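Section 3.1: Structural characterization of target chains.
Under the original work plan, the team committed to producing a structural model for every single-chain target entering the pipeline before any wet-lab resources were allocated. The record below documents one such target. The sequence was received from the expression subgroup and is listed exactly as submitted; it comprises 264 residues.
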Amino acid sequence: MGGLNMGEPILWSHKTVAEIREYMSKRPTVILPIGCTEQHGYHLPTCVDILNAEEISKRVSAETGIMVLPTVNYSYSGGELHGTVNVSPNVLALYIEEICLSLASQGAKNIIIIPGHGGSENMTALLAFRDMFLRKHNHLDVVIAVMNAYLMNLCGEGDWHAGRAETSLMLYWAPHLVHLDRISYDSEELLDMMRKNPDAYQDIQKIVDSPQAGPRIRQRRDIQVGVMGYPEEASAQIGKEIADKSVKEIVETIKEIERQRGVL
């Protein structure tokens, strides 16, 4: 697994009541990684989004001394291939709300969410939750920030799900889980479509011809692999570069939040 090359991360799950109480009294900032159990083609495991959120969070913790909570392993993919476990966006938002309320009751003032899955519906749910939290709980003095720097560094040039970037990250921190000899793709037509638009995996059907009526959306039945990118171009070095850049950007953002909040 790719080395941390800095201090050790501070893990909530390894601490005692007394240790967490003392930490919160001095540094009321915590990191909440949110992953997704989702297929990533034939060459990557279903824990890609979990590990990405977790490993980025640990590196941010190692550099800042901020405590990391246990990773939320389930969110919303929208895909339907074997291995994917979907939790609907509204349930995810309610679940994260409960976690944040519990953290706030223990003294957390800054809650940093680091998502490992960037699907459009999933991110919409997280951002909507963030924006509604203080509408619903406006008596609380809590900042909730959703960090998308890592996800933004994954995107671009037709490389999305299980492609060059995600495969590179897995080669960096969990090479034993990567099977480059098993790289497979859907048809050339499907692959080209999904490289141009990561939501092209959706089969969108209008039941009635009315702009007021919503469509039925499911995964296209002809998709069997689900790769949207160029995994054959992956390397551990690319993974390290993505990780380092993402950690740097997230650390800078957190420091600014804490500066404005008077934490440091």
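The helical segments are 17-26, 48-64, 89-105, 120-136, 149-154, 164-173, 188-196, 236-261.
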